[in-house]
Amino acid sequence: MADTLTRTPAPTVPTDDPTAHGTARPLLAVGWLWFTRSAAILAFLLLWETAPRVGLVDRVFLPPLSEVLVATADLAVGGQLWAHVSASLSRALAGFVVAVAVAVPLGLLIAWYRPVSDLLLPLLELFRNTAALALLPVFVLILGIGEASKVALVVFACTFPILLSTVTGVRTVDPLLVKAAVSLGFGPLALFRKVVLPAAVPSVFTGIRMAGAASILVLVAAEMVGAQSGLGYLINSSQLNFQIHDMYAGILSIALLGVTLNGALVALERRWSRWRTTPG
Amino acid sequence: MSEHPRLRLDGVRQTFPVRDSRGRPGPPLTALDDVNLDVGASEFLTLVGPSGCGKSTLLDLLGGLARPTGGRILLDGRPVEGPGLDRGLVFQQYALLPWRTALDNVAFGLEAKGLPRRLRAARAREYLALVGLEGFADRYPHELSGGMRQRVAIARSLAFDPEVLLMDEPFAALDAQTRESLQDELRAIWLRTGKTVLFITHGIDEAVYLGQRVAVMTSRPGRIKSVIDVDLDRDASRDPRSDPAFARYRNRVWQELHDEVALARRSEFAPVPSEADRG
Ligand SMILES: Nc1ncnc2c1ncn2[C@@H]1O[C@H](COP(=O)(O)OP(=O)(O)O)[C@@H](O)[C@H]1O
Ligand SMILES: [Mg+2]
């Protein structure tokens, strides 16, 4: 989702290019870059503001942006917004962290033992392609309507992207690097620690980033079905109570939450794979 | 040659199992057949042969990365049982760890040797300087040119002080100018360190320029066809490549190689059972 927006302009990001460090860009070019990057968003926000005002859409169903922002501010001041955000965030993070803690080591293990991966990969592929939300009723049946089923759903949705990209990362390690390390007399353990693991890091992070997006996606949907708090609940209940401004406030918050989470993960990924050549 | 050459290949033979397109086992592919060769201590020997004749296979065996199907490989009279730090390998594609700086790449082999961290950094710096890269210690491989990367790889293989340097077409991926300057530097390093060097190439000029002896291999199955002693006047101030003797050696190697290349080319088009070609 949001990752495509931030990743597309990668070639123009100065930090990606080691030779561009010293050369200061002319101010005009920087300004132009920011303009082109934000133009579409600004145009969209402008459309949101004007369309209801000029009667292009019914302002009952789509209030102008400024009114939504006021409603958002009201919710924020009243403390409700933060309560919902923190409810969603703590569920998403709990599930996400559990998934990372389980899936990365498991993925390494599966990939390192070839027969194990041959055995399990088809099953994992099946799980990954099973829409997590389809399992929500099952989780509710087993774990009840409370926190556990929601967190479990997030764990499920996050585990498979991480697992599979970890396996891919380990499997696609350049055989020549392995050969070079073996020729130096490194044993299997040192080989794993010094070559396989670092080589797999970028791929693992790709999976983690996908999991981050997935965690919010499934959580919000789960909160719409059965919850007393969280952004998904806020959106759904506002709609039911015809508090349309609050509904849009919730949607706006989710979008911001998603972008922020993705941005944080991308920054983390950059830090950990700074050695990588810029793609393309 | 003395009783114990540094490196001795004695009737070395290597075959690979082959499966046809339906996965059924066929007759094995003989990559090397009865390879006999001695390399003396501190000798610089170049090995030329047509592509696919088994040069890299031979290097894998020397590096202890694979065991020969038949014959023996002796290092200082002892059979090679596996990889070891008495041999340093240099590959055409550098094989540097992309997440490590030049310095840490050189230190990689020293970790294998079990050197303490502080000594590692000092030694790695010393060897980076040896290949003329003292100012590039903190660069990552993708920030270095191909020639610089190969210098780092050479420094890595020299730093742990192996007796033998085994190089598999190390300069083949470089442009002509970089290649020539690296050839000169390698020669200088060899003169300075007195290492035994086995240098694989498919370039005739390179083989004659670098080698004290040039071993020519047959097309597959690879055998040593002939070994040519090269005696060039290298003290002269001019480039030995312009020496008329250089042209004569060049021509002799070319003659030896010519039929083999033709043979290899013909067998490339012949219907052979499918095989995993590692290039
Ligand atoms: N692991 C392997 N399995 C099957 N065939 C191989 C293997 N390694 C090399 N070969 C074959 O052995 C022959 C020699 O290969 P190689 O040593 O790479 O040649 P060179 O380095 O001289 O170009 C080739 O025909 C190659 O396809
Ligand atoms: Mg080869």
From TrEMBL, chain A:
Pfam families: BPD_transp_1. It is found in: Cell membrane. The chain crosses the membrane at residues 27-48, 92-114, 126-144, 151-170, 213-235, 247-268. It comes from the Bacteria. The keyword Transmembrane helix applies. Residues 85-269 form the ABC transmembrane type-1 domain. It is a multi-pass membrane protein. Keywords: Cell membrane, Membrane, Transmembrane, Transmembrane helix, Transport. GO terms for cellular component: plasma membrane. SUPFAM superfamilies: MetI-like. The keyword Cell membrane applies. GO terms for biological process: transmembrane transport. Belongs to the binding-protein-dependent transport system permease family. This is ABC transporter permease. It comes from Nocardiopsis eucommiae.
UniProtKB/TrEMBL annotation, chain B:
The keyword Lipoprotein does not apply. SUPFAM superfamilies: P-loop containing nucleoside triphosphate hydrolases (SSF52540). Residues 7-244 form the ABC transporter domain. Keywords: ATP-binding, Nucleotide-binding, Transport. One of its GO terms (molecular function) is ATP binding. SMART domains: AAA. PROSITE patterns: ABC_TRANSPORTER_1, ABC_TRANSPORTER_2. This is ABC transporter ATP-binding protein. It comes from Nocardiopsis eucommiae. The lineage of its organism: Bacteria, Bacillati, Actinomycetota, Actinomycetes, Streptosporangiales.
